[in-house]
Structure formats: structure tokens, C-alpha cells
Design brief:
74% of the residues lie in helices and 0% in strands. The protein is mostly helical.
Length: 201
């Protein structure tokens, strides 16, 4: 007797999460309605709940999706042996992602939506703190490697400078969301990178 083949999924999970992510990026967690998410993904509410859980679980799934795309975009830049070029490439890749999404306002899903919810929601506050720590770690780790390789001055403090770069990224995300001209954002990034590299011999 042959085994009955299960019904295939009527949706593409990755595509659904991508569309869900754009809804949260555009309007934030609180304002995103299940009807909007259902319309964007082409799924009804029962299917959404069955696939992703409640709205907060959907939001965290969207954060996972956005963070994975960010890592994929910046890893190549961070692998560059030239520290200045590496850091500039990181910010360029981040801005490219912030500006992706068609009509969606330029933004970082986490940095531009989670802070508004963090004051009243412990789960989102914890997730925001985790994301900030991860960003700090990326920059500090890159600068530690640079100092060990001799491409960062030996008296530099990777932790202090890493926090400066992380704060610059936070500012870049907000400035992109506000529609600040690219030239001003570029100048901010260039100034932060110059501070990290220090005076040239």
C-alpha cells in the first residue's frame, strides 16, 4: 500500500516573512495590524497563526529575517583587510539594506521600530538589548582583529571605538528614516571612520 503524500504548502515561508518584514518596517510593531500582514503575505489569519504564532512571534521572526540579511550584506565588507575600506563598506551595505523595500521608508527594522515599544514590552526590550549587544560585538571584534594584525594603532581601545561605530550606525539608521541627504550621512560615517583610524603618519 503506497503512503499518501502530504499536501504541499500553499505559501512560500521565506517570501511571506519578507513581506511581513516590510509591513513592520513601514508602520512598526504596534501599528501593524494582522489584516495588513495577512494582505501582504497573501495568507489568512488562521494560516498566519499556524505558521508563525502570534503577532509578537511574527515580529521577532521578521527581526531574525532582517538581521540575517544584514549579516549577509556586511560580512564581505568586514572581511576586507583594509580597515578603513572595511568599515566604509559596512556602512554602505547597511544603508543599501535600509533603503531597500520599494515604498517602505528607509530604515533599520530593529533600531527604528523596537525603541518605541521597548518601554512597555519587556520581550521587545530584551530583544532590542540583544541586537544592540550584537552590533557592539561586530565592531569590537573587527577592531580587535585589526589591532592584532597591526592595521589599527596599538594604543587604540577596540571596545571604546567599537561603541563609537555602533552609535554611528544607530544615527545612520535614524537619519536614513528621516530622509536626511546622502551627503550628510556619508560625512557622518567618514568622520567616525577617521576617528577610529586616527592620525596618519
Amino acid at each position: 500500500m503506497s503512503r499518501r503524500v502530504g499536501r504541499p504548502r500553499a505559501y512560500d515561508p521565506d517570501a511571506a516573512v519578507g513581506r511581513m518584514t516590510e509591513v513592520f518596517r513601514e508602520v512598526g510593531f504596534a501599528r501593524a495590524s494582522l489584516d495588513e500582514i495577512a494582505q501582504a503575505t497573501g495568507m489568512n489569519r488562521p494560516s498566519l497563526y499556524a505558521a508563525f504564532g502570534d503577532k509578537k512571534a511574527m515580529y521577532f521572526r521578521a527581526i531574525d529575517h532582517f538581521s540575517a540579511e544584514m549579516r549577509a550584506r556586511v560580512e564581505r565588507a568586514l572581511a576586507d583587510d583594509d580597515l578603513g575600506r572595511s568599515l566604509a563598506g559596512f556602512f554602505a551595505a547597511a544603508l543599501e539594506l535600509y533603503r531597500a523595500g520599494g515604498d517602505t521608508p528607509p530604515s533599520c527594522l530593529v533600531l527604528c521600530t523596537a525603541p518605541a515599544e521597548a518601554a512597555d514590552d519587556a520581550d521587545i526590550r530584551a530583544r532590542l538589548g540583544q541586537t544592540l549587544a550584537e552590533i557592539d560585538g561586530v565592531f569590537v571584534g573587527r577592531l580587535q582583529r585589526a589591532r592584532a594584525a597591526g592595521t589599527l594603532r596599538p594604543d587604540a581601545d577596540p571596545e571604546q571605538l567599537g561603541l563609537l561605530l555602533a552609535a554611528t550606525l544607530h544615527s545612520v539608521a535614524l537619519r536614513a528614516r528621516a530622509g536626511q541627504p546622502q551627503a550628510q550621512i556619508d560625512a557622518l560615517v567618514a568622520g567616525a571612520v577617521a576617528l577610529v583610524l586616527g592620525p596618519r603618519a
